[in-house]
Design goal:
- By secondary structure, this protein is an all-alpha fold.
- The protein has two domains: about 60 residues, Homeodomain-like (Arc Repressor Mutant, subunit A); about 130 residues, Tetracycline Repressor, domain 2.
- The protein starts with 8 loop residues before the first helix and ends with a helix.
């Protein structure tokens, strides 16, 4: 038979701490959430019910947390909206800042930006969906819309360069072309599912075939 040694004071203290933590976890009966986890649930609620109709109390119910526990991670519902919109916009702006988007032939750079935008949409689908639904009702929404306009203008300038190089038709307004291209890309939020048969690269290839050939 294996002999069991007596636990010393330190071991006993550790065991007591572990037991207390386990009891507390059982008493709470709910999972732990960090800011990211709270944000994901908030974005789903914003997309389902609308930002205005979603309350911190509703999020607390979905998360199984108290409202004060949510406020431990974020200052307000508006901060959750800002974080969510930043997630979408940071991804799109990052595509424009990549070396492949700033050097080389304009048509190649445009193709890279379109592929990158599709990948951002697929990777951050709930966040881009939310971005496309904001209407400028709050300071956070207005700031996001301003960033989105800057992105649109950058793409339109790239379209103009590609047109001037002879890669696109010369009888179309670059701003209109950019809107039409991103109309196709943004429509993916209405029907695309990551679990489906089409990959982001498949989608990007189809859009590029329509736009640049």
């Amino acid at each position: 038979m294996t002999e069991i040694a007596d636990a010393g004071p330190a071991d006993a203290a550790d065991a007591g701490t572990a037991d207390a933590a386990g009891v507390e976890a059982l008493r709470r009966g709910r999972p732990g959430y960090d800011q990211r986890g709270i944000l994901e649930v908030a974005v789903a609620a914003f997309n389902e019910h609308g930002y205005d109709a979603t309350s911190i109390g509703m999020l607390a119910d979905r998360l199984g947390l108290s409202k004060s526990a949510i406020y431990h991670h974020v200052a307000s519902k508006e901060e959750l909206l800002r974080l969510a919109l930043d997630e979408a916009l940071d991804g799109l702006e990052g595509v424009l800042l990549a070396p492949e988007a700033t050097t080389g032939a304009a048509a190649d750079r445009l193709a890279f930006v379109l592929r990158g935008a599709v990948r951002v949409l697929a990777d951050r689908l709930p966040y881009v969906t939310l971005l496309l639904r904001v209407r400028g009702n709050t300071d956070v929404e207005r700031a996001a819309l301003a960033r989105r306009r800057d992105f649109d203008h950058a793409v339109a300038a790239l379209v103009a360069e590609a047109r001037d190089e002879g890669s696109l038709r010369t009888d179309a307004d670059p701003a209109v072309v950019a809107r039409l291209l991103f109309g196709m890309i943004n429509s993916l939020t209405e029907w695309y599912t990551p679990e489906g048969p089409l990959t982001p690269d498949d989608l990007a290839a189809t859009i590029l075939a329509l736009a640049l050939r």
